[in-house]
C-alpha cells in the first residue's frame, strides 16, 4: 500500500484490520488505526499516548462512545463513516513524516495525522482524552530530543 512504512506501521495497519473485524465493521477507519497504535505498543505513537496517561482502556472507551454515535449517523445518512478519513490520515501521515525529515512513516506520524483529522472518530476520541495535535507534536519533539540527548531549540 505505502512503500515507506516503518515495521511498526506495517504492524499497525494489519492490527487495524483485525480491530475493524472485532467491531464487525466492513471498513478500516481512523478509530481502528488509533487503537492499533496502542495495541502494537512499541512505536513512538504509543509512547506519546502513554506519556500523556492515555492507555488502551481509556482510548477504547472513548472510541466506543464515538463509534456508537457514528453508527447512528450511518443509519440516518446511509454512508460508511471513516473511509474518506482513513485516506486523508494516511496522506497526512506521509506529510508529517516529511516535516520531521523522516525516511519512514512511523506510528508517531500516524498519531499526529489522526489528531489533525477533523470530524473523525479518532480525532474526537483523542480530543476527549486531552490529546490535541499541538500537545502531541510538542511531546514528540521532546521525546525525539531526549533520544538525541539535546534540548529543543525554540
User: What is the CA–CA distance across the termini?
Assistant: 36 Å
Number of strand segments: 0
Order of helices and strands: HHHHHHHH
- CATH topology, what is it called? Double Clp-N motif
Q: What fraction of the residues are assigned to beta strands by DSSP?
A: under 5%
Poorly predicted sequence stretches spanning 5 or more consecutive residues: 72-82
Number of domains: 1
Give the fraction of residues assigned to helices: over 70%
- Overall SS class: mainly alpha
Describe this structure in words.
The chain is mostly helical. It has one domain: Clp, N-terminal domain (Double Clp-N motif). It has 8 helices and no strands. It has helices at 7-22, 30-40, 44-51, 56-77, 83-99, 107-116, 121-128, 133-148. It is globular, with a radius of gyration of 15 Å. Mean pLDDT is 81; it is low at 72-82.
Descriptors:
154 residues, 0% strand
SSE layout:
Elements lengths: L6 H16 L7 H11 L3 H8 L4 H22 L5 H17 L7 H10 L4 H8 L4 H16 L6
Give a brief rundown of this model.
This protein is an all-alpha fold and 154 residues long. The chain has 8 helices and no strands.
Amino acid at each position: 500500500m505505502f512503500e515507506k512504512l516503518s515495521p511498526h506501521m506495517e504492524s499497525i495497519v494489519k492490527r487495524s484490520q483485525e480491530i475493524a473485524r472485532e467491531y464487525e465493521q466492513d471498513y478500516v477507519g481512523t478509530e481502528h488505526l488509533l487503537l492499533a497504535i496502542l495495541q502494537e505498543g512499541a512505536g513512538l505513537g504509543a509512547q506519546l499516548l502513554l506519556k500523556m496517561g492515555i492507555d488502551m482502556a481509556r482510548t477504547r472507551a472513548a472510541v466506543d462512545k464515538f463509534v456508537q454515535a457514528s453508527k447512528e449517523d450511518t443509519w440516518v445518512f446511509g454512508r460508511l463513516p471513516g473511509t474518506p478519513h482513513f485516506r486523508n490520515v494516511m496522506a497526512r501521515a506521509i506529510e508529517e513524516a516529511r516535516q520531521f525529515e523522516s525516511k519512514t512513516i512511523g506510528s508517531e506520524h500516524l498519531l499526529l495525522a489522526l489528531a489533525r483529522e477533523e470530524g473523525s472518530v479518532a480525532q474526537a476520541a483523542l480530543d476527549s482524552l486531552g490529546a490535541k495535535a499541538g500537545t502531541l507534536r510538542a511531546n514528540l519533539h521532546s521525546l525525539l530530543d531526549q533520544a538525541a540527548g539535546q534540548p529543543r531549540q525554540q
